[in-house]
Amino acid sequence: MANENEVVKEEIELEEANVDNDVVETIEQAEAELVEEQEDNVQAELSKANEKIAELEAKLEEAESRILRQVADFENFKRRARLDQETAATYRSQSLVTDLLPALDNFERALQIEATNDQAKSIMQGVEMVYRSIIDALKKEGVEAIEAVGTQFDPNVHQAVMQVSEPDTESNVVLEELQKGYKLKDRVLRPSMVKVNE
User: Fold this and answer.
1) Which of 74, 91, 97, 139 registers the highest number of CB atoms within 10 A of its CB?
2) What Cα–Cα distance (Å) separates residue 13 from each residue in 10, 24, 27, 142, 151?
3) How far apart are the C-alpha atoms of 59 and 69, rounded to whole Å?
């Protein structure tokens, strides 16, 4: 009986060991499944986080690009506004000068008349003084007459209204100025009306 008891005892111990092994295997398997599930969860969360980071980086890059474009647009606007102000300041007197040109023409015609007596001579001197003071004021503003007679014809500053053939003179040279032209700084206000040699 003792043997039997020992055999039973051994069988019980074996069964307990098998049960313990099964429990250990089950626990290990459960732990492995849990670790794998946690790793999958971590990978999924990490993947979501990476997607979110990529999305936010794209939005940030787009926002930075938009801000840089707006800064560039604003700088261009400031530059254009400054150039417009400089142009307006440079040519502020253009409309006044343009309105005065017919009066200057009339003064020049009046000065071409020869005075026959002392009273007419004194009137002509007064007219010439007024003309000179207007010319001086215009020069201070940057207005100057365009050179014409004896120069090469330049369509940018001359307007040919007549063409003649003078064999003694070079071709395309201005022979006579019919109406004086004027420039305000570098801008032509009125081209000179000229007679040109063919």
Assistant:
1) 97
2) 5, 16, 20, 120, 129
3) 15
Distance of alpha carbon 198 from alpha carbon 196, whole angstroms: 6
Q: Which two tokens mark 104? A: 């200057």
pTM over 0.70? The answer is no
- CA dist 70 → 58, 63, 66, 78, 82 (Å): 18, 10, 6, 12, 18
**pLDDT tens, 163-187?**
888 777 788 888 888 889 999 888 8
Nearest to 169 by CA among 146, 150, 193: 150
Helix axes 118-140, 94-112, angle to 10 degrees: 160
Strands 192-197 and 158-164: parallel
Neighbouring-strand partners of residue 188? 183
Q: How far apart are CA 76 and CA 99, in angstroms?
A: 34
Listed in order, strand segments (DSSP E) in the chain are 143-145, 158-164, 174-179, 182-184, 187-190, 192-197
Name the amino acid, one letter, at 66: R
